[in-house]
């Protein structure tokens, strides 16, 4: 009988429980997937804590990679032995094996490892839609990326440079600053000792940036808006420090008629065609070597609680995977 991480109540990492789970044969349209690696993402902590409420009890985890073990009736484009990855469907990636609808899966190229596949689907497709759809970055523009050494941030930096942007990144310490520079940041701001709005204005000759990609949330939102050029775009795509507080829309006029958006992954892979298109775009830049997916932390799946503690304490850098 396979095991999985489950929660029966919300709270801190201590609510994560390792349990045996029943796994019936895959239903029509489903496959049984044996995980080889599972991605760790900040949104997992939102689900665990109750910030994003779930029906309980519940599994956790939004992305994984592994091998198809069996297929249900009506599944024509997958077979046992296929290598696949995913970042959608019901939460249950923190498991040794699971059943999942085939429509959520994409074929994982042979030259991309299971660890890379598990680490890149949510973070990489998020970076893809942020840069190409939420605000399409153009060559010559200057952008600001918060948490530039983190999972999504590290991909955003590399891909934005590939698009020809000048990238300003913020980080929390000097070690992460060194990594951000290695990823391609033109300028790095250590926010623990510098006021990043003032530094951004200095670096841009007072103009501000075209777009801010902000996964931090409450603690950086207003200062991020202050970094924008006239009619710039504030992209708030995460809540690492908590949800953004309500604000007066007149603020957007005062800041230069700027735009604010709060995108979410499900709305950018709402159709099977869009999922395949974004995944193909991601696989292309990774396989070319122009965007690197570096797994810098690995935990046993049974140690998911410690992985959550380290993630929330900002002890991780880049991508992290859980290994069943």
UniProtKB/TrEMBL annotation:
All residue ranges annotated as the Enoyl reductase (ER) domain in the record: 11-322
The UniProt record lists the keyword NADP: yes
Pfam families with a match to the protein in the record: ADH_N, ADH_zinc_N
SMART domains xref list: PKS_ER
Gene Ontology molecular function: any one: NADPH binding
Sections of the chain in a coiled coil: none
Entry keywords, A to Z: NADP, Oxidoreductase
Gene Ontology cellular-component annotations: cytosol
NADP in keyword set: yes
SUPFAM superfamilies according to UniProt: GroES-like (SSF50129), NAD(P)-binding Rossmann-fold domains (SSF51735)
PANTHER family named among the record's database cross-references: QUINONE OXIDOREDUCTASE PIG3-RELATED (PTHR48106), QUINONE OXIDOREDUCTASE-RELATED (PTHR48106:SF13)
The protein's name in its UniProt record: Alcohol dehydrogenase zinc-binding domain-containing protein
Species of origin: Thauera phenylacetica B4P
Lineage: Bacteria, Pseudomonadati, Pseudomonadota, Betaproteobacteria, Rhodocyclales
């Amino acid at each position: 009988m396979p095991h999985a991480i489950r929660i029966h109540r919300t709270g801190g990492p201590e609510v994560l429980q390792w349990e045996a789970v029943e796994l019936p044969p895959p239903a029509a349209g489903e496959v049984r997937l044996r995980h080889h690696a599972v991605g760790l993402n900040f949104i997992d902590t939102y689900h665990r804590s109750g910030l994003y409420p779930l029906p309980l009890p519940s599994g956790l985890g939004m992305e994984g990679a592994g091998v198809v073990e069996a297929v249900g009736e009506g599944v024509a484009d997958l077979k046992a032995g296929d290598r696949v990855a995913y970042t959608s469907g019901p939460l249950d990636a923190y498991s040794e094996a699971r059943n999942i609808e085939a429509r959520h899966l994409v074929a994982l190229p042979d030259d991309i490892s299971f660890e890379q596949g598990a680490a890149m689907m949510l973070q990489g497709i998020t970076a893809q839609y942020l840069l190409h759809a939420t605000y399409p970055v153009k060559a010559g523009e200057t952008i600001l990326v918060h948490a530039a050494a983190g999972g999504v941030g590290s991909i955003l930096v590399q891909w934005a440079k590939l698009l020809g942007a000048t990238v300003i990144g913020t980080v929390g310490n000097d070690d992460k600053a060194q990594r951000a520079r290695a990823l391609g940041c033109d300028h790095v701001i250590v926010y623990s000792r510098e006021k990043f709005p003032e530094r951004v204005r200095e670096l841009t000759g007072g103009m501000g940036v075209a777009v801010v990609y902000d996964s931090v949330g409450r603690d950086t939102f207003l200062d991020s808006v202050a970094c924008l050029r006239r009619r710039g775009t504030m992209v708030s795509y995460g809540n690492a420090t908590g949800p953004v507080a309500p604000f007066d829309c007149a603020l957007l006029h005062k800041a230069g008629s700027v735009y604010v958006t709060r995108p979410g992954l499900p709305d950018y892979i709402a159709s099977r065609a869009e999922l395949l298109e974004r995944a193909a775009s991601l696989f292309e830049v990774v396989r070319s070597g122009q965007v690197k997916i570096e797994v810098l932390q690995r935990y046993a799946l049974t140690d998911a609680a410690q992985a959550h503690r380290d993630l929330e304490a900002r002890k991780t850098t880049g991508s992290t995977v859980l290994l069943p």
